[in-house]
Amino acid sequence: MPAAEQRDEVEMLWLMLLIRRFEERASQQYQAQKIGGFCHLYIGQEAVVTGAVATTRFDDYVITAYRDHAHALARGTSANACMAELFGKDTGCSRGLGGSMHFFDKEHHMYGGHAIVGAHVPLACGLAFACKYRNEDRVTLCFFGDGAINQGAFHEALNLAALFKLPVIFICENNLFAMGTSVERSTSLKQIIDRAEGYDIPGCVVDGMNFRHVRDTLSEVVASIRKDPHPAFVEARTYRYRGHSMSDPASYRTKEQLEKYRLDDPITRLRAQLTREGKLTNEKFDELDKEAKRIALEAVKFAEESEEPPLEKLYDYTYANGAVKAAPSLPKNNSAAEKKAAAAS
Amino acid sequence: MSEMRQITYRQALNEALAEELERDPSVFLMGEEVAEYNGAYKVSQGLLERFGPKRIIDTPISENGFAGLGVGAAMVGLRPIIEFMTFSFSLVAFDQVVNNAPNMLTMSGGQFNIPITFRGPNGPAHQLGATHSHATECLYANVPGLKVCTPATPRDAKGLLKTAVRDNNPVLVLESELLYSSKGLIEPAETELLIPLGQAEVKREGADVTIVCYAQTVPLALAAAEQLEDEDISAEVLDLRSIKPLDERAIYDSVAKTHRVVIVEQDRPFCGVGAEVCYRIQKNIFDELDAAIARVSQEDVPIPYNERLERAVLPNADKLIAAVKKVCYA
Question: Would you call the peptide bond into A113 cis, given omega within 30 degrees of 0 as the criterion?
Fold first, then answer.
């Protein structure tokens, strides 16, 4: 029986659509070379983050790895700010300084966007530690992939979380591949969930292609943590339709496997469930989808028209409360940047 | 002004910790053996009893894990003090100290500063072998977003650590195991002692040569300066105190006075702190120099256990005096 409060299902379906349409646009813009660096798409996995936010509060903490566009959108970061970040613009959620792998949004309690595999799992412990330290009943949702579970940082973090009874849910988005290496080739255990047992952390497996299953399972976990702070582990079995990143043709897996998961699509499934139950008409779905596409397209326009981060601010974010300054009589060590700025203006 | 008093470097650090824990409830101390054991080097003596287990926290041997926990807690406004039993062990947490703590502010477009202090003994001690003898200042000073200080006296240890805890950035306080029991004069306990980061101090005035030093090489330089006095060489001893930010003004002022420089550093020669100081001097006040700058550092080898060989690797008074004489053409 779900115990924590839940958000409207049609709204959550809409969120999945927004994530999907946003990333389809991002993919197109990447191919058009409007987006640089690496770009990892979440398409196929939407039910995981959506199911999780459906049953948590807006002030709960979310932290994830580099496949992070969906997590920001799910937390309420605008599509405009997300797309602008991909374009490296000043209006991006990290002012164009983070890029695809480093989305941050303090206002919406989105704590990144972390690109060293496993390195943010200890950070999640710190977020949860702070909640406990301040006697807050927030829960920290820590997302990571199946590749992270073999990093030392992950193991140290799980032990610390169990030892200190931290209110954190470790959500392993098991999409079967750490880049191109399958779970069987990377992990000694048959089941990822068994990692939790090794740290005396309660764990469960959810169908990561099924929004309701993710939500209802997490709902109980969240309620239990709010009552009495402790860590939990959830293995969400899911699949990414695209390659590891935009440059990956994913030749390490079969067409049949991909087709199998596509037929189990999380959006199609929730749509069917809601339609069957009389909560959604085809017209309403089309309307939602059209709106998602419109917002994604508009985000591209917004990103394109946004300004680049100003060169003269290059040194502004290295240190809080001002830069480490050179001796007063010296030429500033950012003179090269200034010259470029002068030339550009 | 009340009477100055004499305390140890260890006591000074302990006072700094206690005062900052008392002042700000968001400050906590975490690390291996900091609580029930009272600190591997007894720097946190008595703090568990005074502040309780919520704020003085023992960890398992998981440097990456608890350093990262500290960074995460700092993201939401706590002010962690993370003790490394030695900075040689911080290398296990290198990713957290180098990749997470100092990058966060930039990567988040200015949204998340990380007010964290990493502290513990740094640099070669005595016959600990290669794995336990790292001088990490040059590694960490290389990273934009980190601040690095290296107190050499009890007064500097207390004043710099207190400042570090209040700084809104990741600050490394690199202490010295060999100095924990050393004594020095310090203001009375009730005086609020804060020493700004990035402010060097002339520890001894002189006219003929500037000895730039920090951490363990400060007492070494002071002893060498005494000996040189007997040979009519007046050495000015400039303690950098902070490696980053670097007090370039103080360096140039001293060099403009003496026109000769020896840098004595506890780290290694290749890409060491002295290399940077040397470059900046020649770039900015080349015309003030009357002689090529000399550096005394470790030898460029992993530190051997054997006592005689270890001594040969480290900077010492004889090497420093020889270098001073060379730049003074004495």
Answer: yes
